[in-house]
Specification:
The protein is α/β, with parallel strands linked by helices and 353 residues long. It contains 13 helices and 13 strands.
Length: 353
C-alpha cells in the first residue's frame, strides 16, 4: 500500500501518528515518526507546559514553544512530513494556526469542533488542512462550508471512531453502544460523501481512519472499507522517543481492559482515560481552579469540575495517580517499551500483508 498523498505532499507510508496532548507528542516523537516514513504530528495543546515562563504567560510561552518544537521535529525528520494538531476548542485558536504556518509546518490537523474558518487562517501558504470528523453529517458540513466560504477543499479527512483516545466526538451514551458494524457503515457513508465531493471538484481527498488501530485485523478491516490511511496514537506512547515521562508509558503498559474508562471532561466532551485515583475523585468532587491557563474556549474556571490542563500536565510529568491519563480503547494491548522504528515496521507489515 502506497503512502498518503495530501495535496502535493506524499508520505512514504500511509501512517499518521495521532496528536496527543498535553506533551505526549512533541517534536521528538513527531520527528522520529516522520523520519521513519510516517506523518509525525505535534500536539499544540498547552505545548509550553515545561517552559519556565509558562505559568506567568501561557499563551506567549505556548506560541514560542510551538515554533521550537516544530524546528526540533524538522531537524530529526529531515525531508519527512510533519503535522500539528490544533484543537478547534483551543482559546486563541487562530494564533496557534498562524504560528504553525509561520514555522512552515506541512499539515494542520484540527478536531474538537468544526474549524470552519481554518482555510482563511492558512490562506497564502502551502499548508495542508485536515479536519477530524466522527460522522457523515460533520464531513458534509465542513466540506460544504469550506467550499462555500473560502472556495477551499479539505486536503484529507480523518474519521475518528469511538475507540479513539482522549476527547471523543460522541455523546457519552453512544460510545459503548456503537458496534463495529455501525462504525463501518458510518465510514462507508463518509467515504462515499467525500469521494462524490472530490469528484465534483476534480481533486483527491484521501480518507484516514483513527481509533483503536492496534493489530493486523484492524488494518485489514479498514483497508476493505476503502480508507487510504491510518492514524495511530496509543502505540506510539510506549516508545523510547515519546515525549511523556516513563511513568505515563508504564501506566499504559500496566493497564488492563477494565481499567480504561470514559470520563467527563471540562471541555464538554467525554474522554477516554485510565482509571486512577484522580478519575475516581472527580466523579463526585470538584477541584477548584486557582490559576487559569486560558486553554479551552468553553471552560469557565469558576464552575468547571477541574482544570483539564493541570490534570494532563500532572500525568505527562509522571504524577500519574493525580492526573488524567488519556489513552485509546485498546491501550491494554501494549505490553512493552519499543522504538518508533519497531512500531512503524510492525504497522507497515500489517498494511502490506
Amino acid at each position: 500500500m502506497k503512502g498518503i498523498q495530501i495535496g502535493n505532499i506524499i508520505s512514504k507510508y500511509p501512517i499518521l501518528q495521532g496528536g496527543m496532548g498535553v506533551g505526549i507528542s512533541l517534536g521528538n516523537l513527531a520527528g522520529n515518526v516522520s523520519r521513519c516514513g510516517g506523518i509525525g504530528c505535534i500536539s499544540a495543546a498547552q505545548i509550553g507546559y515545561y517552559d519556565k515562563e509558562y505559568e506567568n504567560n501561557p499563551l506567549k510561552t505556548n506560541l514560542k514553544v510551538l515554533g521550537e518544537e516544530i524546528k526540533k521535529a524538522r531537524k530529526i525528520a529531515g525531508d519527512g512530513v510533519l503535522a500539528v494538531n490544533i484543537m478547534y476548542a483551543t482559546q486563541n485558536y487562530d494564533m496557534y494556526v498562524k504560528e504553525a504556518v509561520k514555522n512552515n509546518i506541512d499539515i494542520i490537523v484540527s478536531g474538537a469542533g468544526l474549524a470552519i474558518e481554518l482555510p482563511s487562517l492558512v490562506e497564502g501558504s502551502n499548508v495542508k488542512i485536515i479536519p477530524i470528523v466522527s460522522s457523515e453529517k460533520a464531513a458534509k458540513i465542513i466540506l460544504k462550508m469550506w467550499d462555500k466560504r473560502y472556495n477551499r477543499n479539505a486536503d484529507a479527512i480523518i474519521i475518528e471512531g469511538p475507540l479513539a483516545g482522549g476527547h471523543l466526538g460522541f455523546h457519552s451514551d453512544e460510545i459503548n453502544s456503537i458496534t463495529d458494524n455501525d462504525y463501518d457503515l458510518e465510514i462507508k457513508k463518509i467515504i462515499k460523501t467525500v469521494k462524490e465531493y472530490a469528484e465534483s471538484k476534480e481533486c483527491s481527498i484521501p480518507v484516514i481512519v483513527a481509533g483503536g488501530i492496534t493489530s493486523k485485523k484492524d488494518i485489514v478491516r479498514y483497508k476493505k472499507l476503502g480508507v487510504e490511511g491510518f492514524q495511530v496514537a496509543t502505540k506510539f506512547i510506549t516508545t523510547n522517543e515519546c515525549d511523556a515521562d516513563i511513568k505515563f508509558k508504564e501506566a499504559i503498559i500496566n493497564c488492563k481492559k477494565e481499567d480504561i474508562v470514559i470520563v467527563k471532561s471540562p471541555v464538554g466532551m467525554p474522554g477516554r482515560a485510565i482509571k486512577n485515583k484522580f478519575t475516581e475523585y472527580v466523579k463526585d468532587n470538584k477541584i477548584p481552579v486557582n490559576h487559569c491557563r486560558d486553554c479551552i474556549k468553553t471552560c469557565n474556571p469558576a464552575t468547571t469540575q477541574y482544570c483539564i490542563s493541570q490534570a494532563l500536565i500532572n500525568s505527562v510529568t509522571g504524577n500519574t495517580e493525580n492526573g488524567l491519563i488519556f489513552c485509546g480503547g485498546k491501550a491494554y494491548t501494549e505490553d512493552r517499551i519499543r522504538s518508533v522504528k519497531e512500531v512503524m515496521e510492525e504497522l507497515i507489515n500489517y498494511i502490506n500483508s
